[in-house]
Amino acid sequence: MNEKYNLFEQSLHCLLIKNPQQKVNATLSLQKQWLNQELLLQPLSDIQSLPVPGRPEKPELVNPKEVSRRKLASLKGRLTLVHAIAHIEFNAINLALDALYRFQKMPEQYYTDWCLVAAEEAHHFTMLSDYLDENGMRYGDLNAHNGLWEMAVKTDFDVLVRMALVPRVLEARGLDVTPRMIEKLQSTGDMQLVAILKKIFDDEIGHVKIGTYWYKHLCKLRNLEPQQTFLGLIEKHMQGAKFGPFEIEARIEAGFSKEELEGLLSRFS
Q1: Domain tally, the chain
Q2: Is the pTM for the entire model greater than 0.70?
Q3: For residue 151, what are the domain limits?
């Protein structure tokens, strides 16, 4: 009975599901079970390394330089954009599930937070997938890249490194680019897509904020100075990373300080 209702086992089960709709349904159910106190925190004796998460055969994964470019004026261009974002959101479901499964000695609030992130990413993927379906395309029809999951593998050894480099670097980049994307889309009159991206943007501020909270919590526990530790982790694990321009207001709402943003720009712009 306890094994059936173990959060870590249930998270791994969701993570390994390949079918996107089944993964979405299982992830939403996982959050509901957790909030209803139907899941126990029973650490597992063996935590698997997952070089490949549960994902469908399509899209084909290629070098980021080979992913189709997008011009937003045409419907085809917008569908190409939506497919790319849907792939990011599908990966983000897996990243949130992995954050639940892999790091098994955190406070209960951590699991509440990352169940929320996983469920919101599932909703984002659903909105984007529905948009594709309504316009004659399906997720998997175009190629995509694997950059997000590659960072999950790089950071699977330490929850502090994961919190630093996934929410606070990769997801935070979305805060910088999405407002300009929305601005361009408004001129096309595609208000359905504008509304979807606004919802994703608002939720992603919360996701980065959650990552920031747990990163700083872990720094405090380990007597590490957060800003210099963050910059050092980027230098160590993300050679060649570039930052800016920033969406300052969104990043500050997500937990960055002005000094921290200045440090990023001075070292990595």
Answers
A1: 1
A2: yes
A3: 7-40+64-268
